[in-house]
């Protein structure tokens, strides 16, 4: 591990000052410390923000939900408001990582976590994300776990977060604090597709701090849930996943929010599936025909062609679980 300095800050002003000077924020440390041990990350200065007052879950005036950036994954998953208003968030969190990691890792850290592409973590392999311009060992390597959507010639790595898929489906916003003050970003604009610069993963300005993720109020009743398909039943990343929220009134779908995980370079919102659902009555054939659009635009690699069909089946199954059939 490379030498680094460590500072623990107690207020946001102090944090921003250290962040602007080039310090890397750390809270739970469940991703960053691993990467530092493997020398994938070599920060010169760590700024411990775990003491900042960003650990609350609150219901907004409009009936949405604001989750502080330092709320632990386990706390968010167990919070009564999260469980009742947006079960999709609780389920996505509970299906992530291990209990020990969920007790440490924060919501802000979760959406900042880096890919699990094995070549990214192997410092002897070519990786444009780790070392811009060095190439992409995964393209011609073993790419069974890699993305089929949103890829570029430079990078085909998936985003690993489960809860980010729920946030993408629900059209959350990310609250930020930086030198220029407060700003909010739609979740869809926060995480960046790789393009020609896969090393740039979030639309953050230098020293900017995530303060919260806000879920907008959605019409009620709202049913929601998260399905994760993986090689083993715990402590494993998604092959495919689906976050679904449906508002059904008088037997007709009024609103549909759907996103997929394990398949995209970022959590993959599925607007074509959503449009197909709205205005229709729940039925077995509707779930199948909507899910058929889930893999539109997919570009499978040598070893992950199976994800195209698996994605459609995952989305259809989760639509059925959440929406039921008559
Ligand atoms: Fe690196 Fe992305 Fe290629 Fe993986 S897929 S080796 S992260 S450039």
UniProtKB/TrEMBL annotation:
<keyword id="KW-0560">Oxidoreductase</keyword>
<dbReference type="InterPro" id="IPR005107">
    <property type="entry name" value="CO_DH_flav_C"/>
</dbReference>
<dbReference type="Pfam" id="PF00941">
    <property type="entry name" value="FAD_binding_5"/>
</dbReference>
<dbReference type="InterPro" id="IPR036683">
    <property type="entry name" value="CO_DH_flav_C_dom_sf"/>
</dbReference>
<dbReference type="InterPro" id="IPR016169">
    <property type="entry name" value="FAD-bd_PCMH_sub2"/>
</dbReference>
<dbReference type="InterPro" id="IPR036318">
    <property type="entry name" value="FAD-bd_PCMH-like_sf"/>
</dbReference>
<dbReference type="InterPro" id="IPR016166">
    <property type="entry name" value="FAD-bd_PCMH"/>
</dbReference>
<dbReference type="Pfam" id="PF03450">
    <property type="entry name" value="CO_deh_flav_C"/>
</dbReference>
<dbReference type="InterPro" id="IPR016167">
    <property type="entry name" value="FAD-bd_PCMH_sub1"/>
</dbReference>
<dbReference type="InterPro" id="IPR002346">
    <property type="entry name" value="Mopterin_DH_FAD-bd"/>
</dbReference>
<dbReference type="InterPro" id="IPR051312">
    <property type="entry name" value="Diverse_Substr_Oxidored"/>
</dbReference>
<feature type="domain" description="FAD-binding PCMH-type">
    <location>
        <begin position="1"/>
        <end position="220"/>
    </location>
</feature>
<protein>
    <submittedName>
        <fullName>Xanthine dehydrogenase family protein subunit M</fullName>
    </submittedName>
</protein>
């Amino acid at each position: 591990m490379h030498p680094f300095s460590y500072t623990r800050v107690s207020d946001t002003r102090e944090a921003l000052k250290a962040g602007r000077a080039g310090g890397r924020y750390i809270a739970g440390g469940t991703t960053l410390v691993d990467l530092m041990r493997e020398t994938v990350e070599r920060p010169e200065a760590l700024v411990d923000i775990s003491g900042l007052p960003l650990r609350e879950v609150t219901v907004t005036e409009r009936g949405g939900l604001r989750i502080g950036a330092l709320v632990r994954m386990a706390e968010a998953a167990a919070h009564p408001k999260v469980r009742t208003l947006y079960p999709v968030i609780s389920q996505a969190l509970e299906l992530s990582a291990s209990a020990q990691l969920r007790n440490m890792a924060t919501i802000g850290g979760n959406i900042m976590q880096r890919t699990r592409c094995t070549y990214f973590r192997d410092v002897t392999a070519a990786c444009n994300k780790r070392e811009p311009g060095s190439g992409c060992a995964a393209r011609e390597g073993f790419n069974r776990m890699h993305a089929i959507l949103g890829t570029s010639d430079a990078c085909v790595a998936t985003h690993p977060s489960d809860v980010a898929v729920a946030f993408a489906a629900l059209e959350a916003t990310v609250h930020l604090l930086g030198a220029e003050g407060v700003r909010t970003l739609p979740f869809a604009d926060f995480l960046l597709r790789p393009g020609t610069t896969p090393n740039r993963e979030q639309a953050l300005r230098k020293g900017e701090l995530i303060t919260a993720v806000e879920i907008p109020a959605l019409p009620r009743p709202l049913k929601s849930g998260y399905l994760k398909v993986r090689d083993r039943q715990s402590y494993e990343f998604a092959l495919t996943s689906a976050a679904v929220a449906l508002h059904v009134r008088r037997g007709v779908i009024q609103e549909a929010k759907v996103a997929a995980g394990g398949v995209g370079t970022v959590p993959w919102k599925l607007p074509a599936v959503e449009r197909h659902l709205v205005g229709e009555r729940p039925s077995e054939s509707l779930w199948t025909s909507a899910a058929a659009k889930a893999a539109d635009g997919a570009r499978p690699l040598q070893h992950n062609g199976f994800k195209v069909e698996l994605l459609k089946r995952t989305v259809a199954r989760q639509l059925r679980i959440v929406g039921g059939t008559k």
